[in-house]
Amino acid sequence: MNFSETKFKGCDYCKSTKYKTIYSVKTKKSLDEKEYYPTSQKKNALNVVECSKCGLVYVYPLPDRQKVLEQYRRYIDNNYLLDITSRRIKFRQIAKKLLDLKKGGKILEVGCAAGLFLDELKTVGYEPEGIEPNVFLASWGRKNLHAKIITADVESYNFKNKRYDVVIFWDSLEHLFSPGKVLKNISGVLKPKGILVINYPDIESTLSKIFREYWWFIISSHFYYFSKKTISKYLQKYGFKTIEDKSSMQYLNLAYLFHQLGRYNIRLADFLYHVTKILNGDKITTPYFAGQRTVIAILQNTS
Ligand SMILES: [Zn+2]
Fold first, then answer.
1. For residues 124 and 107, is the Cβ–Cβ distance under 8 A?
2. For 115-178, where are the alpha helices, taking DSSP H only?
3. How does DSSP classify residue 63?
4. Which of 225, 221, 222 is nearest to 72 (CA)?
5. Which neighbouring-strand residues pair with 224?
6. What is the distance in A from the centroid of ligand 1 to the CA of 55?
7. If you measure from the C-alpha of residue 118 to the centroid of ligand 1, how many angstroms do you get, rounded to a whole number?
8. How far is the CA of 62 from the centre of ligand 1 (A)?
9. How confident is the model at residue 264, as a pLDDT?
């Protein structure tokens, strides 16, 4: 099957059609739709370019949207659920931090996966709901956490009269076909002075600069690679005032880390995974920095 492309309408931020290629993956011209994953990290990214006008870094050309969405919908990722404990540590921290800005209220998480973040937000008193295209993870969250999750794609979802106090994009904005369109839409569903939280891999991070196209976030399902500069441009354009944008530590379970390393050396990773399990490594979480940032912004105008 011919894996067609999404028609290029220029840079998502400024519409310029001029760009320069940063990373070119020459092994393949296009990817099969099975190579697009909603959660796990898969290499095989295609061309990564930088807009000559505004500096936004994105994938060009973008794959066919319907086919990617179909793959996001039906993919079964058991891996994601192997590391619930350490994912929760980070979500708990952010949930508590949000309390300093707004106590209680309705929260929407875009791309909520299995709903772990929603669960932490509920624990500290919010009314959270999520939107997630992946059927497997969304059903898992509804069944095991009683999380309120809508199985849908945010880019075609109609929020109608729904309004939220907080909207969160945790590692999801870079998966969208048009982050600009979605942020514009979101600015309309946020209440006045509503809070926006975005966690994203920073293409300007030191780790990204060292590892270049081998940086772990350069993967097939990431279509945009934001930086502090380009994220702030988007936020300004859609009426948000940034109140914080800083490096974000992640937490990882040691056994899970070795399991993930299997992408590079399966036998070694398998061995280490079993060793850490024996040593109770699946109970140990470790903080690490991978080159991500978390930005918090407030909606200024609601025109
Ligand atoms: Zn641009």
1. no
2. 116-123, 135-145
3. B
4. 221
5. 58
6. 6
7. 33
8. 15
9. 61
Question: What pLDDT was estimated at residue 83?
Answer: 77
Residue 242 CA to ligand 1 centre (angstroms): 20
Tell me how far apart the alpha carbons of residues 78 and 120 are, in angstroms, rounded to a whole number.
21
CA distance 271 to 62: 38
| C-alpha span between 234 and 182 (Å, rounded) | 11
Give the mean pLDDT per block of 10 residues along the chain (303 residues). Answer: 70 97 69 58 70 96 89 85 85 96 97 97 98 96 98 96 97 96 97 97 93 85 95 97 91 69 66 70 70 96 56
Read off the tokens for 133: 């295209």
Alpha-carbon distances, residue 118 vs 53, 98, 179, 203, 280 (angstroms): 38, 13, 22, 27, 28
Name which of 103, 102, 111 is nearest 129 in CA terms: 111
CA of 292 to the centre of ligand 1 (A): 22
* Confidence at residue 116, expressed as pLDDT on a 0 to 100 scale: 97
CATH 3.40.50.150 fits 74-299, yes or no: yes
Domain locations in the chain as residue ranges: 74-299
Strand partners, 108: 129, 167
Name residues whose C-beta falls within 8 Å of residue 118's C-beta, 6 or more positions apart in sequence. 107, 109, 112, 128, 129, 130, 141, 145, 147, 148, 149
Total-model pTM:
0.87
CA 14 to ligand 1 centroid distance, Å: 4
CA of 57 to the centre of ligand 1 (A): 8
Instruction: Put the strands of the sheet holding 224-225 in their side by side order.
Output: 19-23, 48-51, 57-59, 224-225
